[in-house]
Structures are given as structure tokens and as C-alpha cells.
């Protein structure tokens, strides 16, 4: 049983951090730059948690930021909890709503042949099948090499982790469930338990305030495990640049929770 839970924890972190710093902070926001080996390692983690084509994920996420909490936002819970959670994915008849044009909005990712292949010409069904098949091969191989306990741990962790971004999308846009670290016109809030469970992604209001930053946890108590991994990558020479917050000394504003916090200057881009 120890082997099972150890494997589950490792897979859970790989998948979760893969979504956070692979799909989200790297591909969707370019909040840092890294070596390809670092990129693909984390993207694979997210892919094994059924996040689908990286181009599809990025197109949807960029539309979420652009149209946040309006009708054009793919998954605003303001238009129904089910739509916020998974109704924007199922039932599915086509890959994209009319206002989302991945070839225009994700030109950067189309330059990568692997991501173009995983996108399967915009066919949601084909891209999903490819994702499920890859995960099946991975879990089967893991079982054969390391035993059924490890294989089962990887499979269960992937099913659990698949839910986490859907829960973030929903709960972090319900104002009653969290606090605002920064004033914003959208409904985004920081939800502490998702900050932990989603390895930093639950500090969602911070992220909407500064989407270009590689770091989302901005107060001392906002644990951002994914940011630590990016920093570790920098130490190891695998991350070559990251957009860090610049804390302005002695400048404080009050959050909704009346906690004094440092003002964060605009992200520094290369
Ligand atoms: Zn959001
Ligand atoms: Zn984002």
C-alpha cells in the first residue's frame, strides 16, 4: 500500500504541475522560457491527465482571459455551474465556438509540429481519442514495468487530476468561495484549498490581475508549488527566463480579507 500511495503522490504532482507550468503558465501565457526537455516533460504530465491538445487548451484559456465572465467566456460559472465545470466540454459537437479561432489566436503553437499533430486539424474527437490512447499505453506500460499498484496509482491520479482544473475554473470564479487579492471587474477569487490542491493555480484572482507572471502565490501564505518548480528549473539551467513580480518596498494595499500585501509591479518581460 505504501508503494501505491507514494506512486499516486508522484503522479499527482507530475500531472498537476504539468498542467500549471506546462499548459498554463508556459504555453498559454509565455510567463517563462525554458529548454525543450523541461517543456515536454511537463506537457506530457498534463497530457496524461487528459488535458487534450495543447492548442485546444491554450485557445480556450486565452478566450477565458479575453472574455472573462461574459457570455463569450467558455467556462464562466456565472452562466450555470454545469457550464462552468464541464458543460463547455460536453456534450460536444464541434471543437470551437465561432469566436475562438486557434489558427489566429495560437499561431505561436502551430509553429511546433508536435502540438500541431496533437491538435488533429481541430477535430476534438480525434484529438481526444489520441490523448486517451496515449494515456492507455502509458498506464499499461507502467503496470508491466513497475507492477499493477504503480500502474493503478498512475491511472487514479490522472482521473483525479483531470477534475482539478475544472474545479478551479468553476470555484475560482464564484466570489463567495474566496477572496480578492487585487481589485478586479471579473469574478475571480483566490481559493486557499485550491491553491494547495491545484499546486498554485487556486490563487486565481492574483493570476487574473497579473496573467503574465510565472508566479501566482504572491503573499507569504499563498503556497505556490509550481512557482518553486520553475525556480528550481532556473537554478538547474533548464529555465532561461521568467517573469517575476517586483515587490515595491513599503507599498501596501488592503485585500478583501484586510491583509496588507505588497503591490506587485508589472511583469518584467524580456
Ligand atoms: Zn479564470
Ligand atoms: Zn491563465
Structural summary, described in words:
The protein has one domain (2-264). 53% of the residues lie in helices and 7% in strands. Helix 1 crosses helix 2 (36-47). Residues 249-270 have low confidence and may be disordered. The chain is built from 12 helices and 4 strands, in the order αβαααααααααααβββ. It has helices at 2-28, 36-47, 54-66, 81-87, 102-105, 107-110, 113-119, 124-146, 148-171, 192-197, 204-209, 225-235, and strands at 32-34, 239-242, 247-254, 260-264. It starts with a helix and ends in a 6-residue tail after the last strand. With 270 residues, it is mainly alpha-helical. The strands form 2 sheets. A two-stranded antiparallel ribbon has the order 1-2. The chain has a two-stranded antiparallel ribbon with strand order 3-4. Bound molecules: zinc ion (ZN) (2 copies). Residues 24, 28-29, 61, 65, 207, 211 line the site of one zinc ion.
Indicate the structural class. Answer: mainly alpha
Principal-axes shape call: globular
What count of helical segments does DSSP give? 12
How many structural domains can be distinguished in the coordinates?
1
Which cofactors or ions or other ligands sit in this model?
zinc ion
Biggest sheet strand order reads 1-2
Largest sheet: 2 strands, antiparallel
Q: How are helices and strands ordered from N to C?
A: HEHHHHHHHHHHHEEE
What value does the average pLDDT take? 90
Strand content: 5-15%
List keywords for this structure.
globular; 4 strands; disordered C terminus; 12 helices
Amino acid at each position: 500500500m505504501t508503494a501505491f500511495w507514494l506512486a499516486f503522490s508522484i503522479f499527482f504532482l507530475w500531472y498537476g504541475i504539468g498542467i500549471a507550468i506546462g499548459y498554463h503558465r508556459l504555453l498559454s501565457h509565455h510567463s517563462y522560457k525554458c529548454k525543450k526537455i523541461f517543456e515536454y516533460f511537463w506537457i506530457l504530465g498534463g497530457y496524461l491527465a487528459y488535458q487534450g491538445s495543447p492548442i485546444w487548451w491554450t485557445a480556450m484559456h486565452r478566450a477565458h482571459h479575453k472574455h472573462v465572465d461574459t457570455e463569450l467566456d467558455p467556462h464562466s460559472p456565472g452562466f450555470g455551474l454545469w457550464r462552468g465545470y464541464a458543460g463547455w466540454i460536453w456534450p460536444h459537437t464541434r471543437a470551437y465556438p465561432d469566436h475562438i479561432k486557434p489558427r489566429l489566436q495560437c499561431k505561436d503553437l502551430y509553429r511546433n509540429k508536435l502540438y500541431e499533430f496533437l491538435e488533429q486539424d481541430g477535430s476534438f474527437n480525434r484529438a481526444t481519442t489520441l490523448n486517451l490512447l496515449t494515456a492507455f499505453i502509458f498506464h499499461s506500460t507502467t503496470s508491466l514495468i513497475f507492477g499493477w499498484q504503480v500502474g493503478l496509482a498512475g491511472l487514479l491520479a490522472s482521473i483525479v487530476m483531470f477534475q482539478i482544473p475544472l474545479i478551479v475554473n468553476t470555484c475560482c470564479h464564484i466570489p463567495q468561495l474566496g477572496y480578492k487579492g487585487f481589485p478586479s471587474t471579473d469574478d475571480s477569487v483566490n481559493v486557499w484549498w485550491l491553491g494547495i490542491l491545484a499546486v498554485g493555480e487556486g490563487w486565481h484572482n492574483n493570476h487574473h490581475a497579473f496573467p503574465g507572471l510565472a508566479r501566482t502565490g504572491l503573499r507569504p501564505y499563498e503556497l505556490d508549488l509550481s512557482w518553486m518548480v520553475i525556480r528550481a528549473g532556473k537554478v538547474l539551467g533548464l529555465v532561461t527566463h521568467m517573469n517575476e513580480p517586483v515587490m515595491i518596498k513599503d507599498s501596501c494595499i488592503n485585500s478583501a480579507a484586510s491583509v496588507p500585501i505588497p503591490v506587485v509591479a508589472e511583469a518584467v518581460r524580456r
